[in-house]
Amino acid sequence: MNNKFLKSIVAGIIATIAMTVLMVISGKLGMPKMEPPHMLATTLGAPVVVGWMMHFMIGVSFALIYTYVISGWFEKINSVVLKGVVFGVIAAVMAKVSMTIMGKMFDTMPAPSGNMALVLMGLVMGHILFGIVVVWFIHRK
Questions:
Q1: How many angstroms separate the CA atoms of 52 and 88, rounded?
Q2: pTM (predicted TM-score)
Q3: Which parts of the chain span the membrane according to its record (predicted)?
């Protein structure tokens, strides 16, 4: 797949699936339950399907941001995994900042539940996986 834009869209979809699977599995293993699609739907007073669509649109947007903005920052890093980890941490920070802003804007946004250290750890872990998958897919030959 040579088209950078299309490759980014596919990378965002695949990475969002990977991150979502990790969230489901980690919730079953005792980590706090994290459900971004439900959080988005509840916040906006929309059906859950809208939350799922937004979740994937955000994932695709992050992949496009990596491709067209952030990837140039990592030219001196040779490791795809390290690029993915750094991008994942950046994505996690962007997600946390966005959720904090949304919480201030919308009274309907549910507050995170459970141990906040574990919630943040899960947020970072999920986005690191997301970042690794995006970077790997975009840079694969």
A1: 20
A2: 0.90
A3: 9-29, 49-69, 81-103, 115-138
Q: Is 47 strand, coil or helix?
A: coil
**pLDDT tens-digit map of 47-70:** 999 999 999 999 999 999 999 999
**Quick one: pLDDT at residue 1?**
62
Low-confidence ranges of the chain (pLDDT < 70): 1-2
The contacts of residue 74 (CB under 8 Å, 6+ apart) are 83, 86, 87
Q: Would you list the DSSP string of 72-107?
A: GGGTT---HHHHHHHHHHHHHHHHHHHHHHHHHH-T
User: Residue 94, Cβ neighbours under 10 Å: how many?
Assistant: 14
What are residue 114's phi and psi, to 5 degrees? 100, -175
**Helix intervals (H) in the chain:** 4-28, 36-44, 48-65, 80-105, 116-139
Sign of the C-alpha dihedral computed for residues 104, 105, 108 and 112 taken in this order: negative
